[in-house]
Design goal:
Blueprint lengths: L1 H35 L6 H21 L3 H7 L2 H26 L6 H30 L6 E7 L8 H7 L4 E8 L12 E3 L4 H8 L3 E5 L5 H14 L2 E5 L2 H5 L4 E5 L2 E5 L8 H37 L5 E7 L5 E7 L22 H8 L7 H7 L3 E3 L6 H8 L14 E3 L1 H4 L9 H16 L3 H16 L7
Parallel strand pairs: 1-2, 1-4, 2-3, 4-5, 10-11
Antiparallel strand pairs: 6-7, 8-9
Helix pairs in contact: 1-2, 1-3, 1-5, 2-4, 4-5, 10-11, 10-12
């Protein structure tokens, strides 16, 4: 099936990249040793580090299975992003081992020059390798000679998808349809209608029949199934469930029973939740112990000068499944604030001067790491809002409350993309919610790592939406 081909291509791609990284490691070590440390290399020790580099790459591949689809898109930005995340996994494993073992036999200069080279190799192989592998793996008798058969489904929209599938061996011979073919598929030969189906399959020696939409009549579906099974032809049916539901759907199998659902949710896995909780504690505990105390003293000093009152500001927010919890922030407004539910604006006179900098640099959010340690929040996730705002905004977007399927976060995909601060209009709210839902559907531990790093960068280089 097509899905197995894309999975297999991704697996082979990861395997070849692991070999390339191992070759790069030993090649660069040989060159580096000639110029920097001739005769001083502990070759046996480097076996462990080369294995760690390969392991980091393999772990990244295992935890981001959705990237198998990205191989078919081949966008430059996708390839560069993937290479960055792959290099991050490799460097994390190498540096963790180096620091935890206090190994002094390995040159730090070698490792820190190897990592940029690894990124360049991975970026280049991400761009070129999938196409080369696809030509090798899906040529010759692996080409699927496919007939498209329209039963009234959305066959006209298949053009871009078929262009991508051509790379993994799906070759379209023509179209069978009882109505005019429009769009990108109009360039394909029309081989006839329903009555010509059996003849066309015989004459073209087709190996696959792709039907757009379930046939209206049960006897037609049984006829197509029997025909394909008797002739050894693969049968694919393009479902129109998304048109019926008005959004994307996915099929799940639970204890032998198959269901349709509206989205995949990786964080419903207890193992994934354990990974995410481990990352939350690993990030928040050092912040609470070592960063919050001096920052709290600094905030207290500025508050005493400009806006005396409590250091912290507690407010009830709606958390996971809309359950209320108390969120902690450094107070950035004057104590006399008659309208706490009103969103802060760019020139809000309720914010004292130093408070503007606290908000712009996101320092006022730091106490929320206490919420993370307590378990009411995560480092990464949809931002928690007031219950009244949730009720108001759910009237604007029907799927607004989907963002409450997971714990709220200090930062998130929406914030990294610049959708933070005041929701000025319905469009800005829509983009924010769509980013939150995209995060829920595509969560991975690598994505959390990447969002944390990008958020740290934005602390020093705040986006225009920060105020």
């Amino acid at each position: 099936m097509i899905s197995e081909r894309s999975r297999g291509l991704y697996a082979v791609h990861c395997f070849v990249q692991a070999i390339l990284i191992a070759i790069l490691y030993w090649s660069w070590l040989f060159i580096f040793s000639l110029s920097h440390m001739p005769g001083q290399v502990d070759w046996r020790r480097h076996v462990m580090y080369s294995m760690l580099a390969v392991t980091g790459l393999v772990l990244k591949g295992l935890t981001t299975a959705q990237d198998r689809r990205a191989l078919l898109r081949l966008r430059v930005l996708d390839r560069l992003r993937d290479a960055f995340v792959q290099t991050l996994w490799i460097s994390t494993l190498l540096l963790f081992f180096l620091v935890s073992t206090k190994d002094k036999s390995i040159s730090r200069l070698f490792l820190f020059t190897f990592l940029p080279l690894a990124y360049l190799l991975l970026a280049a192989s991400n761009s070129k390798l999938p196409v080369l592998l696809a030509k090798m793996l899906f040529g010759g008798n692996r080409v699927e000679r496919t007939i498209l058969y329209s039963t009234g489904g959305q066959i006209d929209t298949l053009g871009p998808w078929l262009d991508r599938q051509e790379r993994i061996g799906l070759h379209v011979l023509g179209v069978l349809s009882d109505r005019p073919v429009k769009g990108a598929l109009s360039a394909l030969p029309v081989l006839g209608g329903t009555e010509d189906l059996e003849r066309v399959l015989t004459e073209t020696r087709a190996t696959q029949l792709l039907i757009s939409g379930f046939p209206m009549f049960k006897n037609l579906l049984q006829f197509l199934t029997t025909l394909c099974e008797r002739r050894g032809i693969r049968l694919l049916v393009l479902t129109d469930f998304e048109d019926k539901f008005g959004q994307a759907v996915t099929m799940v199998d639970e204890d032998g029973i198959r269901f349709l659902t509206l989205r995949e949710e990786p964080l419903e896995s207890p193992f994934n939740r354990l990974l995410k909780r481990t990352l939350d504690i690993a990030v928040s505990l050092p912040v609470v112990l070592f960063i919050l105390p001096p920052i709290t003293l600094m905030v207290w000093f500025f508050q005493r000068l400009q806006a005396p009152g409590p250091i912290f500001y507690n407010q009830p927010r709606a958390g996971m499944q809309n359950q209320p919890f108390q969120i902690y922030k450094y107070r950035s407004m004057y104590v006399d604030n008659p309208d706490e539910a009103r969103q802060a604006t760019q020139s809000d006179d309720r914010v004292y001067p130093a408070g503007r900098w606290l908000r712009k640099l996101s320092i006022d959010e730091l106490p929320q790491f206490i919420n993370v340690l307590k378990g009411s929040m995560s480092v990464v996730g949809p931002r928690p809002h007031l219950a009244s705002h949730n009720e108001q905004w759910s009237r604007i977007m029907a799927n607004y409350h989907v963002r409450t399927f997971v714990k709220p976060g200090i930062t998130g995909l929406a914030q990294v993309r610049g959708y933070r601060g005041e929701a000025k209009n319905d469009e800005s709210l829509r983009l924010r919610v769509l980013a939150d839902i995209e995060y829920i559907e595509n969560w991975s531990i690598a994505l959390d790592f990447l969002l944390i790093l990008r958020t740290a960068f934005q602390v020093f280089v705040p986006p225009k939406s920060a105020y």
